[in-house]
Amino acid sequence: MTAQFPAARPRRLRRTPALRRMVAETRLSPAELVLPMFVKEGIDAPQPVASMPGVYQHTRDSLRKAAHDAVEAGVGGIILFGIPAVKDGEGSAADDPAGIVQLALRDLVSDVGDSTVVMTDLCLDEYTDHGHCGVLTQSGEIDNDATLRRYASIAVAQAAAGAAVLGPSGMMDGQVGAIREALDGAGYPEVSIMGYSAKYSSAFYGPFRDAAECAPRFGDRSTHQQDPANADEALREVFLDLDEGADMVMVKPAGAYLDVIRRVRDAVDVPVVAYQVSGEYAMIEAAAEKGWLDRERTIMESLLSIRRAGADIVLTYWATEVARGLTA
């Protein structure tokens, strides 16, 4: 005779906060969070970014303090973006040993390099006077191979300044291979590459371009960033980066591309990174300021959704705040 059991009731495991915590399928930890930070040359006090409440263009001194706060909260990494005082067509400040990023890198490596992962964005848009991610031809197109030579030089300069992980974000063909070859040839085989492998041509980057002062002066970046309509293409880009030596791969933005994060996670056996970009941050902050959303709940829900989709590491401007909450 077959025993009859009462039907399962999933709500039993949702009755109390303690039960919900115990059976949660997805968790956040501070070590999985990376804080993007901006450092600007030629300012004597941190400058607030109007479109990103709570985010600043830092001086070297204020950057050091904010980095210390992040590490104290348990944040797993910091990724640095630089804004030089002088820009030109080649982005010369990007690989200048005395450039703002190289100086700030040395500060951070000295201060917190044993306690967190110090990372750098590797691109040219913050450093060029035209705001594009590479060297331009006479006709105004990006010269892919000339840009790779610049990326290789920037990679060596950032590695020499102490960066543990480089994040090439320009979406040039062959960028990871060119950077890996340059690093190995210069004696930095231990420096990791986090490929911005599936970086979409997105409307969600607007506030970042205010923060990094890198809006293109003409045209857009749709010729090298991915079309938002395409997902299969993301996997092709990911596999190309892995073949060229990437140690981690990224999907950017995160919130509008959770399906792509899931597909990448299912396809690879390296860490998958997702960047919760400036527009995602600004929308939640703006809606919360209006009283339309519960700010803390929305932040946590957005981050859990990115982790649930399969991201191992999340770049987010809330990293320090969230890390503090998780360890409180």
Shape category? globular
- Largest β sheet strand count, sense and barrel closure: 8 strands, parallel, barrel
Structural class: alpha/beta
Taking all residues together, what is the mean pLDDT? 92
The proportion of residues forming helix, as a percent range, comes to 25-40%
Element string (H = helix, E = strand): HEEEHEHEHEHEHHEHEHHEH
- Number of helical segments? 11
Radius of gyration (Å):
21 Å
Low-confidence parts, pLDDT < 50 over ≥5 residues?
Answer: none
Query: Roughly what fraction of the amino acids lie in strands?
Result: 15-25%
Distance between the termini: 53 Å
Strand order of the largest sheet: 1-4-5-6-7-8-9-10
Strand runs, count: 10
What would you note in describing this structure?
Helix 2 (60-73) packs parallel to helix 11 (319-327) and helix 5 runs parallel beside helix 7 (232-244). The chain has helices at residues 17-23, 60-73, 100-112, 144-160, 175-185, 206-212, 232-244, 258-267, 278-289, 295-309, 319-327; strands at 33-40, 47-48, 56-58, 77-83, 117-122, 165-168, 192-199, 248-252, 272-275, 313-315. The mean pLDDT is 92. The protein contains eleven helices and ten strands. By secondary structure, it is α/β, with parallel strands linked by helices. The protein has an eight-stranded parallel beta barrel with strand order 1-4-5-6-7-8-9-10, surrounded by eight helices.
